[in-house]
Specification:
Nuclear Transport Factor 2, Chain: A; 38% helix; flat; 6 strands; 27% strand; single chain; alpha+beta; four-stranded antiparallel β-sheet
């Protein structure tokens, strides 16, 4: 066997080993998502794209809603989403743990006019985030819908962030 064929052979063997033996926690198959969860995710991001904050708030999990009241949520979401336009999402990975799913989503959003990244003006941005969805009594709720750099109440530590509006409300 010549050297070139040997290198190709080793590469193929290593590729097969990686495919079969490496544990991959996130799968790209949407078929592993229950239909009712897929519907909930679709509804959530449709409401978000239309800035229907009452609907997205009701789809957040109980712990979030018990810490952040709706009026404060609406005020911060209005502020954080100003100038942004939600365009689309694509589910690219799924990890299931009993009644909790971590869904890796690729988001595409139109940025506010004049926004720039590394000194270059951009019209839109693609962001990949892991979102978390929990099932409580047969209904799906968003524990973490994805902040996408601008929606501060959508990150995993939303209730502990140092947002002036949150701090003011907590001190009242």
């Amino acid at each position: 066997m010549n050297k070139k064929k040997y290198i190709i052979f080793l590469f193929v063997i290593m590729l097969i080993a990686v495919v079969f033996f490496v544990k991959r926690p996130l799968r790209a198959s949407n078929s592993s998502i229950p239909n009712d969860l897929a519907t909930t995710i679709e509804q959530y991001y449709k409401h978000e794209s239309l800035k229907q904050w009452e609907d997205t708030y009701e789809m957040r999990d109980y712990l979030f809603r018990s810490d952040v009241n709706f009026d404060l949520y609406k005020k911060i979401m209005d502020r954080d989403s100003r100038g942004w336009e939600f365009l689309q999402y694509e589910i690219i990975g799924v990890n299931e743990e009993k009644l909790k799913y971590t869904i890796k989503i690729k988001f595409l959003e139109k940025t506010p006019e004049g926004d720039s990244i590394a000194g270059k003006e951009v019209d839109s941005i693609s962001i990949v985030e892991e979102t978390v969805w929990v099932n409580v009594d047969g209904k799906w709720y968003s524990e973490q819908p994805g902040a996408r750099t601008h929606l501060s109440l959508n990150n995993s530590f939303a209730t502990s962030i140092k947002d002036p509006l949150v701090e003011k409300k907590r001190s009242e």
